From TrEMBL:
Residues 158-325 form the JmjC domain. GO terms for molecular function: metal ion binding; oxidoreductase activity. Its cofactor is Fe(2+). This is JmjC domain-containing protein. It comes from the Eukaryota. The lineage of its organism: Eukaryota, Sar, Alveolata, Dinophyceae, Noctilucales. InterPro entries: Cupin_8, JmjC_dom. GO terms for cellular component: nucleus. The keyword Protein transport does not apply. It holds the Pfam family Cupin_8. The keyword Metal-binding applies. It comes from Noctiluca scintillans (Sea sparkle).
Amino acid sequence: MAQVVAFHVGDRVHVLMSTSTQMVWHPVASTKRASVYCCAILSLGDASTIWEVGQSRGHVEVLESLPSHARFFEEYLRGTGEFAKVGKPVLFSGAARGMPAYNLWTDDYLRDKHGHVLLDQVEPEKKETRTVLAQEDWTLRKFLDNYADKDIYSTAITPRALSEEVYLLPFMNCGGYLDKLQATVLWFSSGGTSSVIHSDSQQNVHCMLAGTKHWILWRPDEKIDSREYGWIQAEDEGKRDPQFKDAYGQFAGRINVSDVDLKKYPGWNKMPRWEMTLRAGDCAFIPKEWYHYVESTRQRSISVHVWFHNGNVFEGRGCDKLEAKLYNSSDFVYSLSDCTFRESRKRNPPCRLPKERLARTEL
């Protein structure tokens, strides 16, 4: 398979090498002045990565400002048009830049301020296989001392002390989500990570605080969760195949994302897919049950996500109550530490209003 590298500077594209017209472009790096793309030139019989198979529908929608509470619920969470009943993925450019974590979370700051906090789950592999159990109860200081030169990856529940520096996006301030918050996870590595192809049963707001992640997304009504697409239920599969004897969960375990076997699994080459690139300061909404694959570039990478559920109707009364208490419901109001999640829910109401009206940056 031949390779092409192209530099896009201003309005000009500089191609270093090209030998074919059938190309699949994939972003590999970017700066303020230039973007670098890698192009695989395909020929019959060549191996195909997961980025090269299927029918690309392009990048998901990008919004430069956050939607209103009602618009988020109707257009993105529930979905309209071709996305009706399945939801619509969307990227919110720069939405995390007003969070303290975006500006504060250097390694030195995290070590000095939060080095004592515990990470309850550290994966001993950067390429997810779901066959190796995570390690428990690392201090953040221990993680920081090791992550740069070891294949480790925090997938811990976001520690409470760190949660004070990450906010719910404003469209979640009201609408019926606060008592349906499920979990928040801290994703932290030196980069170069990759996931399995999987789906989640919860709605997901994912905010990038450092580094870059590239995503592929497939609709939930595709038949990926079938043997025809290499899907496995690991606990059952392990009884038949020693390769999966220690595996857990449900995912496309028989798909090698670096070399998709299109002879055995031809459906992958016919399926529509969407791409998404999250850079530091961006957030995204990934609707529940959308299948996805994620990889990070080879640089320090930190993100935090919030899993949540929703009701069948938009509950607008919560917005009115916030405004009556002189809070701007379209601004940052709640940090993650102001709220409780399913695993530890004892508080009623589920999110407490901050005692002081902090000067939180409006988006």
